[in-house]
Write a structure and sequence with these properties.
Helices cover 50% and strands 12% of the residues. It is of the alpha/beta class and 301 residues long. The chain folds into 2 domains: 224 residues, TIM Barrel; 65 residues.
C-alpha cells in the first residue's frame, strides 16, 4: 500500500502502527527483513511505533532507523480497546507526563538526522481535563525535539464516530505558531484535503482511510492544488494498479496469505467502479489469486 501510494504522489508514508515489543522480538530472528522494511524505490518512509515501555520503544526505534526507515512516529492516538487496556496508543493521551517522557527518550535514543514525529488525537474525551492534557503533551513533545505532530480531530472515545473537529486543528496550529502540524480526519477526497488546509492553516494533511481503495487521491490533491482537473481513474488504470498491488502483496506475504489480505483492498477499490455494488460482492468472495484474476477479467476487462 505504501509503495502504491508513493508511486501515485504521496510525499511521505508511514508503516502501520507496530508494537515496540514485536519489533524488538523479530529483530533477533530471521523474519525481520520480510516483516519490517522501508518502502524502497527511493520513497520516503517512516515507521510508526506504539508501546508503553520507553526502553522497549527506544530499542525498537534504533533498530528501525538502522533498517532504513527515515523517521520514527510515536502513536499516542490508537483508540482500539485492547490497545487502551494495555496502556498504549490513545491511553497515553490521559498520561501527559509519561507521553512526553516517551517521546523525549526516543529523541535521545536516535541520531539527530532521524526525525521523531508524534500522532495524537484531540484528547481522551471532551472534558476540560483532556483538553489540558492535550496541550501539555503538544507543548512538551515540541520542547523535546519532535519534528512534527499529526493531530486527528476526534477524541479517543469517539474512535471513528461523529465528525473530526477541524476547528480544533485551527486552534492547534495557531497555538504552536511555526511548529509543523499535520491535520488528519475526514479526508476522503482531494477537495477535502485542500479545504482542511484552507480552513485550519495546518502545514500538511495525513490521508489515512481515504487512501484505501483510492490511492489516486494523492495525485488528485496535487492536480487540484495546481488548478488542474483531477478525474477519477478509468477501469483500465484501476486494473493496472490492482494487479500491481496484488503482485507486491504476494511478494511480501506469499501466495497462500495474499488472497484474504487483498480481499479487503478489493472491496474498497470497488467503490470507484461504475457498478460498485456488484463488484464489491464479487471481491467479497475472493480467496486466492485465481479468484482475484477472475474478478478483474469480468469487471475490469
Amino acid at each position: 500500500m505504501r509503495v502504491i501510494a508513493s508511486r501515485l504522489g504521496a510525499l511521505f508514508t508511514y508503516s502501520e502502527a507496530m508494537l515496540a515489543r514485536f519489533v524488538v522480538q523479530i529483530a533477533r530472528g530471521r523474519r525481520a527483513g520480510r516483516l519490517v522494511r522501508p518502502t524502497g524505490e527511493g520513497a520516503l518512509g517512516g515507521a510508526q511505533l506504539m508501546g508503553g515501555d520507553d526502553e522497549e520503544l527506544a530499542a525498537a526505534a534504533r533498530w528501525l532507523a538502522d533498517a532504513g526507515f527515515r523517521a520514527i512516529d510515536v502513536n499516542l492516538a490508537c483508540p482500539v480497546k485492547k490497545v487502551l487496556r494495555r496502556h498504549r496508543g490513545g491511553y497515553l493521551m490521559g498520561r501527559p507526563d509519561l507521553a512526553v517522557e516517551i517521546v523525549a527518550r526516543l529523541r535521545d535514543a536516535l541520531p539527530p538526522a532521524v526525525p521523531v514525529t508524534v500522532k495524537m488525537r484531540r484528547g481522551l474525551d471532551d472534558s476540560t481535563e483532556s483538553r489540558d492534557a492535550f496541550f501539555t503533551i503538544l507543548d512538551g513533545v515540541f520542547r523535546t525535539g519532535a519534528a512534527a505532530v499529526t493531530v486527528h480531530g476526534r477524541t479517543v472515545r469517539q474512535r471513528y464516530e461523529g465528525s473530526s473537529s477541524w476547528r480544533f486543528l485551527r486552534e492547534v496550529k495557531q497555538h504552536v505558531g511555526g511548529a509543523v502540524v499535520l491535520g488528519s480526519g475526514d479526508l476522503f477526497t482531494a477537495a477535502d484535503c485542500l479545504e482542511m488546509l484552507r480552513r485550519t492553516g495546518v502545514d500538511g494533511v495525513a490521508v489515512a482511510r481515504g487512501a484505501i481503495g483510492n490511492p489516486w487521491i494523492f495525485r488528485q490533491i496535487r492536480a487540484l492544488a495546481a488548478g488542474k482537473p483531477c478525474p477519477q481513474p478509468d477501469v483500465d488504470e484501476q486494473r493496472e494498479v490492482m494487479v500491481e498491488h496484488y503482485r507486491l502483496a504476494e511478494a511480501t506475504y506469499g501466495a497462500k496469505r495474499t488472497g484474504p489480505i487483498m480481499r479487503k483492498f478489493g472491496i474498497q477499490y470497488a467503490r470507484l467502479h461504475p457498478q460498485a455494488e456488484d463488484v464489491r460482492e464479487a471481491f467479497i468472495r475472493v480467496r486466492c489469486q485465481d479468484d482475484w484474476r477472475r474478478v478483474l477479467e469480468q469487471w475490469y476487462g
